[in-house]
Amino acid sequence: xxxxxxxxxxxxxxxxxxxxxxxxxxxxxxxxxxxxxxxxxxxxxxxxxxxxxxxxxxxxxxxxxxxxxxxxxxxxxxxxxxxxxxxxxxxxxxxxxxxxxxxxxxxxxxxxxxxxxxxxxxxxxxxxxxxxxxxxxxxxxxxxxxxxxxxxxxxxxxxxxxxxxxxxxxxxxxxxxxxxxxxxx
Length: 185
Description:
CATH topology: Four Helix Bundle (Hemerythrin (Met), subunit A)
Shape: globular
CATH class: Mainly Alpha
Radius of gyration: 17 Å
Distance between the termini: 41 Å
Oligomer: single chain
Number of domains: 1
Low-confidence stretches: none
Number of helices: 6
């Protein structure tokens, strides 16, 4: 029988995995070192992306927490944006799509935080999960030595991620207005 944690619990298996992902992030960013891809960076990226699913599984099994609801999306954003910025620094990714993604992620995170302080919670939609996966694929294909030269491949995922990022951001704002109206009524 799995141990169940209450919504205010901090030290949970899922949060442990999430914190480990955050602590490993700087090592990944340092490993991203050029346009030819990197097996060590790709393997670490793959592990960090896979552990996102593991912490979600653990949270569902042991109970979701408010701290996990904050930490998991934070870890996703730190990893994706950090890796994308490292790829921009190495002249792999163009700055514009990364700037668009970063602006949306930061704006929605700030908005979500403000709404949360007012007691308004808006659950993530499936589109947000697909967006995150597209962002992860864009980074992954740019890091994978077998596909690092195939700019069209990772650029396609990057621009699809931009479109999904902007669409899900707009949808999030619409959903929050709808939830706020229903909670205030």
